[in-house]
Amino acid sequence: MKIKSPKILRIVLVVLIVLITFLYLQTDVFVNDRKDTNHVVTEVGKEDTSLKDGDAQVPEKSKTTSTKETLNRFAEDLDLFKGKQLGGMSVVSFSAFNQDFSNMYSQNVRIFLKGPIQVTGTYGYVQTEEGFHGYCMSDFTNDSLALLPYLPLIQKEVVPRSWFCFRNEDESVVVNALGKEERIITVLIDNYELISYPTTVVDRADLVEVVLE
After folding, report:
1. DSSP strand pairing (163-166 vs 204-212)
2. What is the pTM of this model?
3. How many Å separate Cα 74 from the centre of its chain?
């Protein structure tokens, strides 16, 4: 059929252009929708993966339970009871050093012991980076090590305490009796406080009498 009117040709051309534009836009929207869908799937996949990784981690409540169970197991590694003889001293009482944990175990324990015992070792002033300072004794003779208390671990070698500091409330009592000079001395001590904890802690004892200096 022959179209003679230029006006009709223009109308047909405009309609074709509109159709082509519409089809192009529809195709672009479809592609973008596919991209967005893939993006969402990917994000969900990441979340799922994260959740799977998280499943391997212990929830806070489970961690608390696990910690308590661990402490209960550790409590069994102490052979400790009132009246037990540790070195030359007798156990009077014991408890958890850190009271945030109700359970006592080998690295969270405070033991009070009675003597007295006589020890010989090096006396001197000690100051630590943690801020502790006081007059202490260390480098004990073998006879003294045999009398000093130790942490009563089950089926482990006995390791006597290697140092302690004087607890006397008035430091001048110790200074007046022993002075400030570092040297080897022999003293009678009592009321020993043995502490075991993962951080720097200090055993303490009362100076009862100066035997030899």
Report:
1. parallel
2. 0.62
3. 15
